[in-house]
Amino acid sequence: MKISVSDLIVRFMEQLGISHVFGMPGAHILPVYDSLYHSNIQSILAKHEQGASFMAGGYARASGQISACITTAGPGATNLVTGIANAYVDKQAILVITGETSTHIFGKGGLQESSGEGGSLDQNVLFDSITLYSKLVERTDYLANVLNRAAKILLSDTSGPVLLSFPFNVQTELVDDTLLDAIHFKKHLSCSGAFHHNDHSEAFIQLLTAASAPIIVAGNGCLMSSAQSQVAQLSELMNIPVTSSLKGKGVVAEQEKLSLGSLGVTSYGGAYQYILEQADLIIFLGASFNERTSYVWNDALLKGKKIIQIDNNREQLEKVFKADLAVLADIRLILTPLNSQLRALLNTHKINSKILTASFHEYKMECCEQSRSKLSELYERFPLVALFFQELETHFKKDIMVFDDNIIFAQNFFNVSSENNYYSNSGISSLGHAIPAAIGARFANNKIPFAIIGDGGFQMCCMEIMTAVNYQLPLTIVLFNNATMGLIRKNQFQQYDERYINCDFINPDYALLARSFGIHHYLVRSESDLEGLLPRIDCHSCINLIEIMIDKDTFPGYTSNR
User: Which of 100, 309, 313, 357 could form a disulfide with 284 if both were Cys (CB 3.0 to 4.6 A apart)?
Assistant: First the structure.
């Protein structure tokens, strides 16, 4: 049976398991929107295309499934760039559908044309470095090959964004609906799921048993692999402390006795000192050892230590250090049989669990003197922020999703349980990410979404609050109000002799702004304003804006390398 290409695109999305698509319509993409009208896919109208791309990213992070966004040609597509770049760095499977002018006017100066012809914007070049595949589909005779390649990438375990652009006239052409029969919609595994011939398994166990003070560095790869329980089992079986990268925060509940919190240049916990002074084996599980985690690639952190690295991304293996054992594999599929082997060896007394010395406990956040001093100082500088996160941890022990633009406060004040989800502003670290990402995530599941954001980032994305209003989604926004771009002001204070430029601004009246949105507003100026606040707020079904006042001239103590 003959169907339109626009109908085929929607059926393709349905077979990929896509249930929501975020975007904004425009004339050049209306045929696809018209096909969505009769589809089970819910199309979500954002207020700005960048918001739509962040929503798609939030949906992908919260669900682990393929997400999608859709826009028209020209500015519709270009407005996606920041969010898609963010998704590319975070390796999120997002299908991007854009419209384009009809092929017969390519190169003639068509409105919003981005074909690259006749001096027009070349959309493919623009997106080439931030997608795994970008294609302008000018004809239908190779459409099956294009869709097959897109599906293969999106269904890979090392996925990323894919962009397909369809000219208006191509969307309305008729094709045979059997074309989809040529598409492979099965999940594609790009790496080994188990140790080969026990070689890596034996090497892993030998390195582990030879070590006196091993430590696990758990990264986002553990979350993407759904390997949280396997990492916890390995830690408990062998009595191995665990620290996480910022993106891996919560892989192992940070309240656990073997947790050293998160590792990173903005962390005041004891993990860094423990690795530096005690550890002789570091087990990297899905952690990329990026600038934050590595303390700007501090050689002293790894000096004289054995290293095991497991990652499902070939590019991450030994990218910035040489490992004694580097394994390309899915973490969960690796650790499941490995834990069984270790348990059997323990039961037959062929190996022993590690004995934690008293020094380990000294490095725990609440005991390490250096960390305690730094944390106390941070508490004294930001008491309202610290108290808020304590209240959040106490009141919501499970089933919340926290999208965080600010990072440093949550990294130090918020202990993430294994039953909550913490999503740091990773990727390219774009301000204005938290609110739309939290909205997208709420479409993926019924967990309670929180967006943690500063007043600078808030003004980049606050219009998306109306998206939550339009779809009656619960959302609690925690806004830190200091009337400045805090990180910039901190750097100008520390490194530029207090020459403040383009960091301060005048804020709107957030109570009036919240009223105009039709949402609830809560102002926090003192500790008494926070007492019992969260129990009083309906976070399950309402949209709330909690405004926490902080001093613009109070800064975290760490010094940036820039």
Answer: 309
